[in-house]
Structures are given as C-alpha cells and as structure tokens.
Amino acid sequence: MLTEPEWRAREEAHTARMRPWTGPHQARRSRGEKHPVLDFLFTYYSLPPSQLERWQPGPEVLLTGGGAARFLDRTGYVATTGGVRADPVLPPKRARMARYVVSLLEATGARPPRLNCFGLHEWAMVYRHPAEEVRHAQLPLRLGSAGTDEVVENLDIRCGHFDAFRFFTEQARPLNTVQPTRETQRDLDQPGCLHVGMDLYKWAYKLGPLVPSELLGDCFELAADIRVLDMRASPYDLSALGYSPVRIETPAGRAEYARQQAAFARRAAPLRERLITLYRGLLSATEVGSESQ
C-alpha cells in the first residue's frame, strides 16, 4: 500500500529520470530533426515518450488517497477496497504473449554469453548497398563503401538475432553463419547479443500498466546505453555527434567491443530474472482468476 505522498514522490522521480531522453527526443521531433543513435529508442521500440514518462506501480500495489482516482482513466486499473490498483489478470491474448516471453527469456538466460559477433550486423545492413539507400544515409561511412564491404567479407558474421538479421542486405545474408527466423528465436537468442539486451525494454513495456516503472526505467536505461555501443561499433562516422568509434575492424577494437558486450550481459542478467519473475507471477494470478470465475 502506498499513501498518496509516497506514490506521488515515486511518480515525480520516474518522470524526472526519463526526461533526459524523452525531452530532447520530443524537441528534435518538433524541429524535424533526426538522431541516428537515440531515435531508435522511440521508433524501433514503440512505446511513446509520454507513456515512458508516465509512472505506474505494477501489480500488487494499492494506491490510496483521493488523487488515485485518476488512474481509473487508464486501461488496466480497477477500484478496490481502500484505493486503486492495476488488475493483474491478463486477457487471453496477453497471457499467450506472456507464456512465449517467459519461455524466450528463460531459454536465453540459460545460455552462456557469446562474445564473438563484434557488432557486424550493422555492417551487414549496408553491405554492397547503394550509399543513398542505407538506413542512415545522412552519415558518412568511416571506411567508405569499399572498405566497409571488405570488412564484411574478411570477418565471420555470426548474428543469431532475427530482428537484426532481417535488416541485412540480400548480399549479406548468405555470409551469415546462421539463418535465424522468428520460429528459431528461442533457440538462438543468447545473452551476449546487444539486441537481446535492448529487447528487455520491449518485454517490459509489453506488460503495459503491470510493469513497475522502476523496472521499466532500468530496462530502458540499459537499452539506451547498449544502443550507444551498437552505433559506435557500426561502420558510420558519428564523430560530428560526439561519439568516438569502436573500431571492430581491428583486433583492439574487437577486444574492446567484447569487453563492453560482456559487461552489458552481466548488467542484463538480473533484469531478465526480474522480468521472468514478474511474468510468472502474472500468469499465476491469471490462472487463479480464471479458476475463480
């Protein structure tokens, strides 16, 4: 149970925590400006900035005080004795999603991190591609088109994450050591993958009002930090934006990438476990709720 002063303090703290990302993004969007590193957090990932800023208590938390009534204007909240809380019972479609996510997260967490992909997925997305058609055409390639292609051809591409692989150019796909699909995602996702770490944010916001904002914020901050490494190790020249490159085309750069990759895997592990616990608790509550009807 949270008193109104308690939950209002948490609400204000969460909004202030997220504003360093949401505020600049909204300002850039109003000016029609793009940011090739940070826009990803709000375009590839679909949670609007206003919802990221909005605090939510998660399940099993009773909000008291007259001000709690405004939560009833949101989907997923119910009035109960003494206050307002989020309804922990998942509708059938969301319950199916939750069962899949638990199986995916548990399978991923059971594997050791693999640290030898070196971020080549971003290079494979521009391999033998016309310069004007690459995803971030406004940015120059550090090594030029020919130099970028040479890196792809000389290093093994070992990307097992389908949502990165699906953006490879047609010429790059056969060069990958595996051919991931959506159906094989549970078999291939592994905790050393940067995109797997960023996706913890997606699995957090997929729960809507049932994820505590403190956990959502932790997953978002992890995704934001990983995204910086993801693009610093890319073939793009980001020096004009203040980002120094991780030169994965060199042995020293690959070692630096693997070191940071391992650190992110360690940071992601407890977040993954928190999400698994949350998802399993909601599935149990849903089963109990179904039996009582």
TrEMBL record:
It comes from the Bacteria. Residues 1-32 are annotated as: Disordered. Residues 1-15 have a biased composition (Basic and acidic residues). This is 3-methyladenine DNA glycosylase. The lineage of its organism: Bacteria, Bacillati, Actinomycetota, Actinomycetes, Pseudonocardiales.
